[in-house]
Amino acid sequence: MSVTAGAIAPETLRRLVRVALDEDLGGDPGTDLTTVATVAEADRAVVEVRARAAGVLAGQVVWGPLLTDAARRTAQDPPVVELLADDGAPVRPGDVVARLTGPTRALLVAERSGLNLAGRASGIATHTHRWVQVLAGTGVQVLDTRKTTPGLRAWEKYAVRCGGGVNKRVGLFDTAMVKDNHASAAGSVVAAYRAVRSRWPDAAVEVEVESTADALAVVRAGGRYLMCDNMDLDALAATVRAVRDLVRDLDGPDGRVEVEATGGLSLDRVRDVAATGVDHVSVGALTHSSPQLDLGLDWVG
């Protein structure tokens, strides 16, 4: 799989770059004390970004905007960026994924920010790909969640796509999700669903359920996306069967309710979860617990 730069908004990349460089340099334009003291303004270099571990690459799209901004801050020409692998591509230890040529000061200023962002994204893509591989052939999609690093949601969800996963809602604004606290506030899960549907008739609505009875009540009320939270395999399978039977009676053979399993999932049991008939599994660990993929920047000239 290959993911192009069009998959993430250019302004999102520019914002990430600004924040990362401001953090490292103490503002805009900021100062790299060591580099200014040790590297002549006219010095130039060629460096390579290498994978130091096996995984799935993500974050290549950051190098161009990052080096352009670093060069602006150091009052130099932007380095030339040669990407040698696409986001979404598998990498092995030692693979050269990018070659960067230009002013040494700009390259050094950008180094850690670039490796942080690309390593974080590649780690998420690698972890996501493991889930995708385990579920291959089941037809079940791997979804991410809102359990993301503040300020990095768009970047981390992009990384999930690079690994073959599917993005769930972006935030509170684009999809209504009725959870247990909403149900408590409204009096019941069905009352909460009806309140959301009444206030936002055109919005996508997902409803978290913890029992077969709640799932059937929501479907009878019109709900067509269920999140089965922390159900054991027997309960999950029974819920899926009951929901499918009910929808067939209500909506006919073309009726459809999407069912998602969430909570307490692991790689060693997710195929068993898929066998219950769910359409999706959502995994918060894709973004909150993925280890960084080790990438390095090596001087070659």
TrEMBL record:
<comment type="similarity">
    <text>Belongs to the NadC/ModD family.</text>
</comment>
<dbReference type="GO" id="GO:0004514">
    <property type="term" value="F:nicotinate-nucleotide diphosphorylase (carboxylating) activity"/>
</dbReference>
<comment type="pathway">
    <text>Cofactor biosynthesis; NAD(+) biosynthesis; nicotinate D-ribonucleotide from quinolinate: step 1/1.</text>
</comment>
<protein>
    <recommendedName>
        <fullName>nicotinate-nucleotide diphosphorylase (carboxylating)</fullName>
        <ecNumber>2.4.2.19</ecNumber>
    </recommendedName>
</protein>
<keyword id="KW-0662">Pyridine nucleotide biosynthesis</keyword>
<comment type="function">
    <text>Involved in the catabolism of quinolinic acid (QA).</text>
</comment>
<dbReference type="Pfam" id="PF01729">
    <property type="entry name" value="QRPTase_C"/>
</dbReference>
<dbReference type="InterPro" id="IPR022412">
    <property type="entry name" value="Quinolinate_PRibosylTrfase_N"/>
</dbReference>
<dbReference type="Pfam" id="PF02749">
    <property type="entry name" value="QRPTase_N"/>
</dbReference>
<feature type="domain" description="Quinolinate phosphoribosyl transferase C-terminal">
    <location>
        <begin position="124"/>
        <end position="298"/>
    </location>
</feature>
<keyword id="KW-0808">Transferase</keyword>
<feature type="domain" description="Quinolinate phosphoribosyl transferase N-terminal">
    <location>
        <begin position="32"/>
        <end position="122"/>
    </location>
</feature>
<dbReference type="InterPro" id="IPR013785">
    <property type="entry name" value="Aldolase_TIM"/>
</dbReference>
<dbReference type="InterPro" id="IPR002638">
    <property type="entry name" value="Quinolinate_PRibosylTrfase_C"/>
</dbReference>
<dbReference type="InterPro" id="IPR027277">
    <property type="entry name" value="NadC/ModD"/>
</dbReference>
<dbReference type="InterPro" id="IPR036068">
    <property type="entry name" value="Nicotinate_pribotase-like_C"/>
</dbReference>
<keyword id="KW-0328">Glycosyltransferase</keyword>
<dbReference type="InterPro" id="IPR037128">
    <property type="entry name" value="Quinolinate_PRibosylTase_N_sf"/>
</dbReference>
<dbReference type="InterPro" id="IPR004393">
    <property type="entry name" value="NadC"/>
</dbReference>
